[in-house]
Design a protein that fits this description.
heterodimer; A: mainly beta; B: mainly beta
Chain lengths: ~230, ~240
């Protein structure tokens, strides 16, 4: 399953230990890249048998709308329905290069794992992802580095387009400097499951070429984000 | 920090038994031992400095990016570089030109590699500081076939390192943010170009970030004199730290 699902009673018993205690957690997320932006970030503490996404499996519609357009509406609805603790949109705007955002929550009993997602701009369906990371029970500060994933739901044509699910192309918010007139890097989405993003190709022609992203600015190497978790 | 042995002047009390002859009219002589406390001042011994030494091995994991002489810096606090922060001029000099002198000067103790470390090569560099066991260790080196890419380690806490302890990490590549990544002829000091190193004029974002990688002429950056050979990925460097005394 690729969506957050309700925990079943039987498996809840397995975790009925000190692991299920509520925790006072502060989360800080930093964009490590030089030229990329992240859409508002969802940080979700939930039960271990739920999952926002799984590498190698098909993206849920809620992950798709996050990865293609930055919307957290579907993910937030699911998170609420399973009593997850949500730090959704802890930033009002996009998270620019090297910027950080942070927030705190008191996780409910049983919500012992942390997942983090946000769309990468510019990209067709790229997102930063942390999948079911076990929140330590020991007080301290922990650091996790995140890779860029490809939702596998849209061909990486790297052309200015739309952010709605199923609409080709990339959303083009005004804070991004993108080219126009590209012919399209590819029309194929070879791996339709979630996978490590192959990266932007880009070109050096703002008025043509194959891509509307700039190759010397909008590429990246992993990791792309740093998550610092402080358990108080 | 090892607290210095504080041997200030020590008052040492000597108990000295002094025989006292008590003469009497009688033939009997009675010897009485009387204890007298004599205070003498003993000069303080000079504290003996304790060498604390580390070996840092830097290994170049790239295909064709020589590394500039590594800077090994032991400092008390702070950072040599940090993602999102404005780089110092010393960092810029290292990242654009491979000149590590400015960074070395920031340390309580520091050491430079003997020379460039070629792809696949490694160098072990020793650094010694006296009496300090809780320094921060930073390591930096430039990927010389780039505009301002560098790799390294920032402010590793050494306070838990005991003699014999060893720790290994791999490091990614950072962009100093001080020179735009044109990869153009005349802008990179490494052998792929032989161009300019440090230039005080800043022409890029102005903050340190993770490096997006070189594009190269082979991959669509028409201004680039780099080839596919010069591409790199994370990690680019392996760093092993061992406390040897």
């Amino acid at each position: 399953m690729n969506k957050l699902t309700k925990i079943c009673a039987a498996s809840a018993l397995v975790f009925a230990s000190s692991q299920t205690l509520a925790a006072d957690v502060t989360i800080s997320i930093q964009n490590l890249t030089q030229g990329l932006y992240f859409t508002p970030i969802a940080a979700v503490a939930h039960t271990p048998d739920a999952s926002l996404f799984e590498v190698g499996e098909e993206a849920s519609p809620e992950i798709q709308e996050m990865a293609e357009g930055g919307s957290l509406a579907g993910l937030t609805t699911i998170a609420t329905s399973i009593s997850a603790d949500v730090l959704a949109e802890p930033t009002a705007g996009p998270l620019g290069p090297t910027e950080s955002v942070s927030g705190s929550f008191m996780t409910a009993d049983g919500n012992t794992v942390l997942s983090v997602v946000a769309m990468i701009l510019p990209s067709n369906d790229g997102f930063i992802g942390l999948d079911n990371w076990s929140i330590p029970t020991e007080a301290g500060t922990y650091t996790v580095y995140l890779n860029a994933y490809d939702a596998g739901t849209e061909a990486n044509d790297e052309l200015v387009g739309g952010g709605a699910p199923g609409t080709p192309g990339m959303p083009a918010p005004p804070f991004l400097t993108l080219g126009t007139g590209g012919s399209g890097v590819t029309a194929d989405s070879t791996n339709t499951n979630i996978h490590i993003h192959p990266g932007n190709i880009g070109d050096d022609d703002l008025a043509g070429g194959t891509s509307d992203v700039t190759n010397s600015i909008h590429r990246w190497l992993n990791p792309v984000a740093k998550v610092t978790v402080t358990v108080n | 920090m090892i607290s210095r042995l504080k041997f200030n002047k020590q008052r040492i009390a000597f108990l000295v038994g002094l025989p006292v002859l008590l003469s009497a009219c009688s033939d009997d002589e009675v010897e009485v031992i009387k204890e007298v406390e004599v205070i003498v001042e003993v000069p303080a011994p000079d504290p003996v400095p304790v060498d604390v030494s580390y070996e840092v091995t830097v290994t170049n994991l790239t295909n064709s990016q020589p590394l500039s002489p590594a800077a090994i810096v032991l400092h008390a606090d702070g950072h040599l570089f940090s993602v999102g922060e404005v780089p110092s001029v010393a960092l810029e000099q290292m990242a654009e030109g491979g000149m590590n002198g400015g960074l070395l000067a920031l340390g309580m103790a520091s050491a430079s590699g003997a020379g460039a470390i070629g792809p696949g090569g490694s160098e072990t560099i020793s650094v010694t500081i006296q009496d300090v066991t809780d320094a921060k260790l930073s390591v930096t080196t430039m990927l010389v076939n780039t505009n301002d890419a560098f790799s390294g380690l920032d402010a590793l806490d050494l306070s838990t390192f005991a003699v014999g302890d060893s720790w290994t990490t791999t490091a990614g590549v950072y962009d100093a943010g001080t020179e735009v990544n044109s990869e153009a002829a005349g802008t990179m000091p490494g052998p792929a170009d032989g161009g300019e190193g440090f230039n005080a004029t800043r022409t890029d974002t102005g903050y340190v970030a993770m490096h997006p990688g070189v594009v190269t002429g082979d991959d669509g950056l028409s201004s680039s004199v780099l080839t596919v050979q010069h591409k790199f990925d994370n990690p680019a460097v392996r760093i092993m730290v061992t406390r040897i005394e």
